[in-house]
Amino acid sequence: MSPTPAEEPVVSLPATHREVRLAALPDGVLTPGHFEVVTAPVPTPGPDQVLVRNRLMSVAAVMRPLTLADPDAFGLPQLLHKAGEVMRGAALGEVVRAPGTDLAPGTLVRHRAGWREYAVLNASEVSPVDPEALPDPAAHLSQGFTAWLGVVRGAGVRRGDTVFVTGAAGGVGSLAGQFARLHGAARIIGSTGSRHKADRLTRELGYDAVVLRGAGSIEEQLRAAAPDGIDVLFDTVGGEQLRAALALARRNARFALVGALAAQLSDDALAPTGISTLALITRSITLRGISAMDHQDAMPAYLSEFGRALREGALTYPYTRLTGLDRAPGALCELVEGRHLGAVLVEL
């Protein structure tokens, strides 16, 4: 039974901790100079709040600070960072204090207040982690849930499908291709930005072919890799790659859109992608945007499949692990530049 607030053990805490703040919004290339690591007082939890000591945090390209002319457009304000604010992102940590809640000190929880050593959150904002659910605790910070949702609920990958995964070397794409294979895909094609990552995708992650950005027309490369067309698009990028997929889509193809990095990593995060609606209609193509926020009911099924696949060696979770909070700004810049394959985690 969890201790009552009066019974909580006395824990010695430091007076201060470190956190990463956004010093300035980028106008062009993101650099570590856009961030600052500052010292601040360790926050104190109020009733029904939780003080968490962060142990491991995720760094993902989608965390790139954005400058938008209309920050209220498309429901994006909750995703945006403002200059002077502490950065945010997924993290694993241990409960230190949780007055008035059912969370016992020492409980491992997942939340979205990373980029700092200590965080105070409402009890509803943290999710206890089952240490037996996944063989590697770091896998709780994977973007596997997004990958699984896009494959299973977004596109409904089935036996015999030819699948095109854009951004295949990213934290989502590196798992999406593997989930597609588990669900019966016969041929899996990915896209990435370097020959080195392309070789790793085919050698380590089960991709059959890779389309290279910057190596000529995406559509022509995709046509060579999938001469009979594609049944599924798992899209994290948008832009030219979405248009190429549409050109190669078979009748009744299913497109799952889980990201829009082509726009987000440009100077116009809301840039539209021009596509043919006539092609969608005449070939009965399903185009579906999918967000993990709308599918939390699927988490148990995902964890069961992900955990089993990891234990059986049917799937791998590629990630880079860095040590020290001060490594986080540089890691985000490197991700935006395309210098990592899979997830990037920072140990605090």
Overview of the structural elements:
The protein has helices spanning 144-154, 173-182, 195-204, 218-225, 239-248, 261-264, 277-282, 299-312, 328-336, and strands at 16-22, 35-41, 49-59, 91-97, 108-111, 118-122, 127-128, 162-165, 187-192, 209-212, 230-235, 249-257, 286-289, 319-323, 343-347. By secondary structure, it is of the alpha/beta class. The longest helix is centred in the last third of the chain and has 14 residues, at 299-312. The protein is globular, with a radius of gyration of 21 Å.
Topology of helices and strands:
Layout (H helix, E strand, L loop, with lengths): L15 E7 L12 E7 L7 E11 L31 E7 L10 E4 L6 E5 L4 E2 L15 H11 L7 E4 L7 H10 L4 E6 L2 H10 L4 E4 L5 H8 L4 E6 L3 H10 E9 L3 H4 L12 H6 L3 E4 L9 H14 L6 E5 L4 H9 L6 E5 L1
Parallel strand pairs: 8-9, 8-11, 9-10, 11-12, 12-13, 14-15
Antiparallel strand pairs: 1-2, 3-4, 3-6, 3-15, 4-5, 5-7
Helix pairs in contact: 1-2, 1-8, 4-5
